[in-house]
Amino acid sequence: MKRVFVNEEWCLGCHLCEYYCAFANSGLADMARALKDRDIFPRIRVEDTGKVTYALSCRHCTDPLCVKSCISGALTKVPTGAVCIDKDKCVGCYTCILVCPYGAVTAGEHGAVQKCELCLENACGSPACVRGCPNRAIVYEER
């Protein structure tokens, strides 16, 4: 299965991946209208340790703890191997946030959790964070 991988030695820490992700998941056609003067809720986030900067997103684990711990059945592994969320089923207990070993599941804008779903819902072809990375530090490939 193809996944998002980050080559931290190439990450500039520019946060553009976060903006492209938030825009792709906004449902709007105009980036300025989607993001200007608003809090953004990207499904990928840039971390900076002081020595290394890297983007963090869902790893779409083979045996995902978040899916096992979801009490409402909102998190599922789809046939492609991606882990996806049904926001209508999410009860906001945040158990999946607590059990994710990568910190990839976060609270969303309206109470339901959110995480990278590889832009499957957006019909983009490839994740928006990958297309928006100016230094090609984020890649979408099988390893």
Describe the secondary-structure layout.
Elements: E1 3-6, H1 16-24, H2 31-35, E2 45-48, E3 53-56, H3 65-69, E4 75-77, E5 83-85, H4 95-99, E6 106-107, E7 113-114, H5 128-132, E8 138-141
Antiparallel strand pairs: 1-8, 2-3, 4-5, 6-7
Query: What is the count of distinct domains?
Result: 2
Q: How many E-type strands?
A: 8
Name the poorly predicted regions: none
Q: Largest beta sheet, briefly?
A: 2 strands, antiparallel
Strand adjacency order, main sheet: 1-8
Cα-atom Rg, whole angstroms? 15 Å
Mean pLDDT: 93
The CATH architecture assignment of the largest domain turns out to be 2-Layer Sandwich
Q: How far apart are the first and last residues' alpha carbons, in Å? A: 8 Å
Key features?
single chain; 143 residues; alpha+beta; Alpha-Beta Plaits; 2 domains; two-stranded antiparallel sheet; 20% helix; globular
